[in-house]
Amino acid sequence: MKRLVIILVLALGVITAHAVQVTLQYFQAKSNGNSIVLEWKSNAESDIAVYEIERAGSDNVFRYVGSVSAKGSNQSYSFTDDEAFGKRDGNNETITRNYFTYRLKVVAVDKNVSYSNSVGVVHNVSGIKRTWGMIKEMFR
Known about the structure:
This protein is α+β, with helices and mostly antiparallel strands.
């Protein structure tokens, strides 16, 4: 019995040592009308290779949309999702939703993976997009 306890304690220590080590100060998503901008800041990073951005729609299935290389502790990151509206998703269906959920898949150098908390965003696309030429025409 004592031997089993020692083995379990050692196994727990090994698993903890290989866990992906990252602490996020914040993770947020904002719609700017044309795209969705994701921003996050790490307080502490240890052996992180890349942040993979995943998006879920009404089906609640997260799909890969892009990645950002890790820069080290206390760094700010940004990713712009230009394909959040009107493009095609992983099922090759046109995206017409306006509410999305995002999360970060944190991939370590040794390929271990962890996930951030998810954040939701309402994406409102303006039906009328004005260009400089359209604005000039209004005043003629």
